[in-house]
Structure formats: structure tokens, C-alpha cells
Amino acid sequence: MGRNAHAGEATISSDPTVGTTVAPRAKGKLNVQRFVIPYRIYGSGGHSLVFLNGVQQSMAMWHSFVRRFSQNYRIVLFDFPNQGAGRILEGSSYLDLDEQVDILDAVINATVGEGRLTLCSASWGGVVALAYAVRHPQRLKSLILASIGTRANQKMIDLITQGLEMVKDRSQIAAGIIESFGKELPAAMKNRIVSQFERMDTESFKAFFQHGSTVISVKELEKVVDLTKVRCKTILLYGENDTIVDFDDVKFLASQVPGSELRVIEGVGHFLHLEKEELLEVYADILASLDLMPRDEPPSLKP
Fold first, then answer.
1. What's the confidence (pLDDT) of residue 219?
2. How many domains does the chain have?
């Protein structure tokens, strides 16, 4: 049966008031091909956690992880183009999957030492993480992938299709996103989604829906990424109230990735820790179970 690649999350603002009280050890911008990629490094632990945002989200979505885990781990955050402060210098506003994997590889090479690392992702970021795992298996210790399936379900397809027809009514699109899969978000975050859509420039708006349209046009994720070649330990997290990723599809994904583990999280939807920050304790349990603290890998000498 044909399966579409999974897409989908709202635009979560990188509003500076939604910040972290932990100062970065290093920060900067990378020039990667035709893109400018901002990054931040927190903590000095021996094992590196690199976080991948979802579509149109920014590194701000992971600040609660910085507060919780930077004392024990080295945390790397960054923005893809069309996210936060990520920029496209020239060419199309569209990024294909290969370009996104190249960007991730450049970030890792610039911020992480020689040891193996863990990728943590949200939604579409998980597709990029899986593609990276296939291309660079020697770099990874583990994957922790949240809110990812192999296809956008009908609700997500309808939302993208309707959004393309409502270009002039940005607030209505934001309301549709919240109604469709953001009901569990705190009120302040819902307000930021509405505000950011209302302020979104035409090019960013087009890029958001162009990406969604492209993703749902891909019929089978397993034909885009050879999931059988993922070699590292993989944890899949699914919120039981997620309305745009079907549970059966997540189980199918788990069956395709060798040795993967699926955990269903009660009481949350697509946005997981953004809905309930106490969900970080689930991540703490996972990180402890993966035995990530290095015994034979020296601390990174990267900035």
C-alpha cells in the first residue's frame, strides 16, 4: 500500500521570552552551500545530543531540554533555513532532503568531536535524522524521534490543501492548525502561533506550504530513506492524542527500522514536551537507559 512521507507542525515562534537561563558555551553561524545556519552549543558533558526542529519551528523549542540536561550532556541546537534565524542566500526557498542532510552533517562536523552522538528530533526532523543515520551510520550512537510516521494522515493533507487556498487569511490558517493538532498547547504558545502566521512574509509562507505539499506527494518514505539500513538504537515517541500521525503508521515505521523501540506517551498530542514540560522525565529515563555517558571517548575539543 502506498504511504506518504510524514509532514506537519505549526510555526512555533522563537520568541526570546521563551528562552533558557543557561548561557551557550559557543554560538555562531555556518555558511553551508547556499545557506546560513545559526547554532548554539550548551553544556560540556561527554556525550553530544544534537536536536532537529520540526518544520518552521526554531531552536527555541528545545530550551527546556537545555535547562534540564546541559549539566550532563553537550547540547547542540540549530535552525534550518526557513526556521528561526536560518537564511537562504540564493536560489529556491525549497530545500530537498539531501540539502537538509548536508546541513545537519555540516553542523555536526562543526560542533561535535569524533565520538558518536545522539540525534533528538521532532516530527519532520525525524525524517532528516533517519536519512542522516543511513548516510553516516558511524557517527551515531542512537536516535530519539518524536511524533514521526511514514505518512501525513488525511487530516494533515486536508490542512495543507486548505491552507494553500487561504493565502490571504493567515489568522484562519493558524486557527486551523491549532484546532487540528495544537489543542493541547498552552494558551501563550497558541497566541504565538497566531502572531507568527500573521507576521509571516510571503516567501516564508510559500516555503511552509511548499514543503508540506512536497512531503505529502511522496508516496512511500521507505523508498526515500532505506529504513532497513539504520544501524543505531532508535526510540520512537508517540503522543496518544496526536491527530496528524496515525498510531498504526508509527507501528509500521517501527517495524521497518531494525531493533527500534516504540513508546506511547499518555496525555499529550503531536507537540509532546511543548504541551507538558514534565515529559522531559521520559527523555531522562530514555537517556539513562541508553547508557550514553562515554567511558572510552574523550571530551570533544570543538568550541
1. 61
2. 1
